[in-house]
Each structure stands twice: as structure tokens, then as C-alpha cells.
Write a structure and sequence with these properties.
Elements (H helix, E strand, L loop, with lengths): L6 H15 L11 E6 L6 E3 L2 E3 L13 E8 L2 E8 L7 H15 L1
Length: 106
């Protein structure tokens, strides 16, 4: 699906691919990247008298090279990324790609 130029069509193609393989398919085990979306808090909250403006989730690597986790907090999407240093030897390149992808769909 990376060759699909339109962002919406590409997201749809990735969704269809994931739905067609299921958790026991080729994308369910031995994957290089694990991605999760965690429900967050949809309203303002405070901690020790200060407003919490961001939450950064950090998921376990669980045998893959990278884990990307997103949590929505009070209307803001917060993303946490954990990398295996032995598997991802150019983290700046990885993060540049993530930033470019997020900018494209924002």
C-alpha cells in the first residue's frame, strides 16, 4: 500500500490488509513494528494542582524492533515510541519517517 499516492486510500488499503490477515496471519507474529491505540481521557484533568496537557504512552517491545503507542488525551493525540537499539540502528531516520507520515495525515 505504500505506493498508493492518496493518503486516505493508503490508510484504507493498510486497514484492509490488517483486517484480511488477522492476528494469526503474517502481520500478527514476527512483525518488526507493533502499533497500539489506547483510550485516553476526553476531558481536562489535573495532577497535584497542575493541568495535565499530554500523556506519553510507552508500550513493551514484545519481541519486535519498535513499539508505537498512541493515546488520545483531551483532544490531543500523544504518541510514544520504544525502539530496540540493536534492531533500529538509525533511530533518527525512523523518527523522520514517523514525523513525515504524521504530517501527511494531519
Amino acid at each position: 500500500p505504500l505506493t498508493v499516492a492518496d493518503v486516505g486510500e493508503r490508510v484504507g488499503a493498510v486497514r484492509e490488509l490488517l483486517l484480511s490477515t488477522g492476528p494469526s496471519g503474517p502481520l500478527g507474529s514476527g512483525a518488526d513494528v507493533q502499533v497500539a491505540s489506547v483510550p485516553g481521557i476526553g476531558h481536562p484533568v489535573w495532577f497535584a494542582g497542575s493541568r495535565v496537557t499530554r500523556l506519553y504512552p510507552l508500550g513493551p517491545l514484545a519481541g519486535c524492533a519498535a513499539t508505537v503507542t498512541m493515546v488520545a488525551h483531551d483532544g490531543t493525540a500523544c504518541v510514544g515510541i520504544v525502539l530496540d537499539d540493536a534492531a533500529v540502528t538509525e533511530p533518527d531516520l525512523f523518527f523522520d519517517g514517523v514525523r513525515a507520515g504524521l504530517a501527511e495525515v494531519a
